[in-house]
Write a structure and sequence with these properties.
Structural class: alpha+beta
Order of helices and strands: HEEHEEEHE
CATH superfamily: Beta Polymerase, domain 2
Number of strands: 6
Largest sheet: 6 strands, mixed
Helix content: 25-40%
Shape: globular
Number of domains: 1
CATH class: Alpha Beta
Distance between the termini: 21 Å
Strand order of the largest sheet: 3-4-5-2-1-6
Length: about 120
């Protein structure tokens, strides 16, 4: 499965669970860690975990099982490492506090098409 296909199912899952202010950055040729970095916000911890669960469900439906999740049930930030695509899901306050987007300023912003 290509990194673009992974990005597409990630964006679909985020959209299905109403993630907010979703941004994706194309880091091919810039980062050796991943091709794409994605960041989205959730209105609550419950929604944050619903988005993460939707991404994992989409991964399984697409027969993709090479992922790792960082964070706990009480976290305000979950990271899903899908190898070529890294997804960061934050509560709004945590996203503002950590401001990870500044790390990816060299990447090209990806225009996301949400259903």
């Amino acid at each position: 499965m290509t990194s673009t296909e992974i990005l597409n199912f990630v964006v679909k899952a985020i959209s299905d669970r109403h993630g907010e202010d979703t941004e994706a950055y194309d880091m091919r040729g810039i980062s050796i860690l991943a091709d794409y970095y994605v960041v989205t916000s959730a209105g609550s911890n419950r929604q944050l975990h619903a988005i993460a669960n939707a991404i994992i469900e989409e991964a399984h439906q697409n027969e993709y099982s090479d992922y790792r999740i960082e964070g706990t049930r009480d976290s305000n930030w979950l990271l899903i490492d899908l190898k070529d695509v890294v997804v960061n899901i934050f509560t709004k306050d945590a996203r503002e506090f950590y401001n990870l987007e500044k790390l990816w300023m060299d990447g090209k912003s990806v225009e996301l098409k949400e259903d």
